[in-house]
Amino acid sequence: MQASTENTLRNDAGIARDLRRICLALVWINAESAHERREEAIAALRMRRDVLSAERAQGKANVVMLRFDRSCTSASDIVLELRRAGVAAVLVGC
């Protein structure tokens, strides 16, 4: 991600988002979910236009930090997508 102006941020795909609409969410992913399924689901989140980033929290293998545009989606919608992909996930904080 890179800052482009005072109030915007561009993700790796070059999509600009207004920083005032960006929300950070922490999602816990059950370690018993299949590793491949977890990684595929996280990669799919990164491809969404409304998600700026989806990264594992440093030192916390089961926690994913998400930055998303709250005017386009919600943290609960993102968690539901993970669950539909077969990943046991719980919203920890937003």
Describe the structure.
- The chain has 94 residues and is of the alpha+beta class.
- The protein is 24% helix and 43% strand.
- It contains two helices and seven strands; from the N terminus they run ββββαββαβ.
- The chain has helices at residues 35-47, 75-84, and strands at residues 2-5, 8-10, 16-18, 22-29, 51-57, 60-69, 89-93.
- A four-stranded antiparallel sheet has the order 5-6-4-7, covered by helices on one side. A three-stranded antiparallel sheet has the order 1-2-3, with no helix packed on it.
- A hairpin with a 2-residue loop joins strand 5 (51-57) and strand 6 (60-69).
- The longest helix is centred in the middle third of the chain and has 13 residues, at 35-47.
- The radius of gyration is 13 Å and the shape is elongated.
- The relative contact order is 0.25.
List the helices and strands and how they pair.
Elements: E1 2-5, E2 8-10, E3 16-18, E4 22-29, H1 35-47, E5 51-57, E6 60-69, H2 75-84, E7 89-93
Antiparallel strand pairs: 1-2, 2-3, 4-6, 4-7, 5-6
H/E topology pattern: EEEEHEEHE
Strand order of the largest sheet: 5-6-4-7
What fraction of the residues are assigned to beta strands by DSSP?
Answer: 35-45%
Q: Gyration radius, to the nearest Å?
A: 13 Å
Helix proportion range = 10-25%
Q: What is the tally of helical segments?
A: 2
The unreliable regions are: none
Distance between the termini: 20 Å
The dominant shape is elongated
* Strand element count: 7
Structural class: alpha+beta
Task: Indicate the mean pLDDT.
Answer: 82
Biggest sheet features:
4 strands, antiparallel
